[in-house]
Amino acid sequence: MQRQATTGELLRDWRQRRRMTQLDLADSAGVSTRHVSFIETGRSLPSRSMLLKLGALLDVPLRERNTLMISAGYAPMYREHRLDEAEMSAAREAIERLLSAHEPYPALAVDRHWQLVTANRAAQALLAGLPESLLQPPLNVLRVSLHPQGLASRIDNLPEWRAHVFERLRHQYATTTDPQLAQLLAELQAYPGGEAPMAADARAAGGIVVPLRLRLDRTQVLSFLSTTTVFGTPRDITLAELAIESFFPADAQTAALLRAMAEPGD
């Protein structure tokens, strides 16, 4: 049976991932470097309040902060509710309002593994015609976008978009150490489509974003810029790991096409 990491080992790993020295962490926490060293080597067990402070300073995900608490013999600090539970009604309504208000532009909510939680009508319309096997729950939006039978065949700038997705996943894995993200990245990289550095599409958008160019037919292309919204100061693991992906038209033609697609009867 694999040995469980100690509290000190876990903290040292998170500190190194955040590229902080013991002195950096000690100064931020208002303690001595010697105290941080003693915690990491197991010579001193941090108090509950100190462990919470160190977890916050190291930006440890809430799920992993619970792991830290348990490793030190304390009760978990953060609860995890399903979105359909009564305690989450306010958050659930806020998510639905955000998605609805973004019409006629696509928006969707995803969990930490990029599985679809909910989507507005505009986002659902973009998935029309895809194989049912890809749309069965749990629907992974990155798999749907890069799978050769998914949206990949419609993405005009597929190599650039793949590179953008892979970079986001690498960063997310480095931040969370979630092994499922590493597995997802490996799966997506095995799909055909290549990778490319920033090209003309990104430069046309000012060089600061990578647009998603989605072809509707031979003459019509939707060009999107995307943003990510997360809940501020969440106290629940589900909310902390939930993100809302909103897509905005990158040009006037896209805005007009989306408004037309949203008209009744279309």
UniProtKB/TrEMBL annotation:
Keywords: DNA-binding. SMART domains: HTH_XRE. Residues 11-65 form the HTH cro/C1-type domain. Pfam families: HTH_3 (PF01381), MLTR_LBD (PF17765). GO terms for molecular function: DNA binding. This is DNA-binding transcriptional regulator, XRE-family HTH domain.
